[in-house]
Description:
It is built from 16 helices and nine strands. By secondary structure, it is α/β, with parallel strands linked by helices. The chain has two domains: 3-207, 3-Layer(aba) Sandwich (Rossmann fold), CATH 3.40.50.880; 224-332, Homeodomain-like (Arc Repressor Mutant, subunit A, Orthogonal Bundle). The strands form two sheets. It has a seven-stranded mixed β-sheet with strand order 5-2-1-6-7-9-8. The longest helix has 19 residues, at 278-296.
Amino acid sequence: MTQDSNRYVAKGVAHVDLPVFREPVQVTFVLLPKFTMLAFASAIEPMRIANQLTGQILFRWQTLSADGMPVSCSNGVPVMVDGSFVGTQPDGLILVCSGVEPENQVSAALGDWLRGLWRRGRTVGGLCTGAYALARAGILKNRRFTLHWENLAGFSETFPDLHAARQVFCVDDRIMTCAGGVAAADLMLKLIHDRYGMALSQEVMNMCLLTRRRTEADEQTTSLAARLGTRHEKLIEAVAFLEARIEEPFDLDACAAKLKLSRRQIERLFNRYLGVTPVRYMNDLRLQRGRALLAETDMSVTDVAIACGYASTSHFSKSFRQKYGLSPYRFSHFGK
């Protein structure tokens, strides 16, 4: 075995016959501090398995960081890299793997580097919150892209002109993004399918113990009915109405008029199926959004309160402290 084969082709029992491919896909992972290990592993393992199944180097990969030093992922485990992205011009596919606190991890240098590669015809992408880097590079306008649902609120506030899809992954010309987690495997399975065919992609899926092939049309989270644990049509409509108006003053009368129900009927539905009042449900939803904005953006507590539909900062702060046990100011500065 050559040195390349030792690195990229592991031994295994299962096998897939495939014509010999001379030009492997080159994949470069740029690891940012606090990146998500699950997303990184879910992207790299399908490639490793494809090589193993065929006994060929169908994929080559390398890992880079800003300074060429190991990078600690969000669970604290340090990961070695092959070098620094500074001054490099990799071929093939370049994927930025990010995770928590993405706003603080993306540098102007990384954005410039990605923009240069994309303009030279490279395919670039982001895993989990890697879309932050693509946004900083200025290449997401009028493109379909996605990132993890937890970070959508913060991303929208930081880049109000960009609108992420809630899909598991998106492929738009030379831009590939996924929501992170096991969605990275879905993205790589599509890449394997498109380049090497159904038989190999299916066997890679079997080796990963994945029983369902997800497509771009699949959403990241379960349906509203599944999330609420009920299929009651009027309750689902009421929740959807309120969630779409999180920044507006709470107006149960408008909701009741829209659904052709009385306030009392809506209140009974919330109490019976969700165990809370509509006011409590909306307040919890706003606080969750506020927590996300404080964690993912540099917005002030006052601006966050306004973005979450609170009439005053003091009301927001009091509600936040009651729910999370500390003030929004302390939370926004925690760990900084």
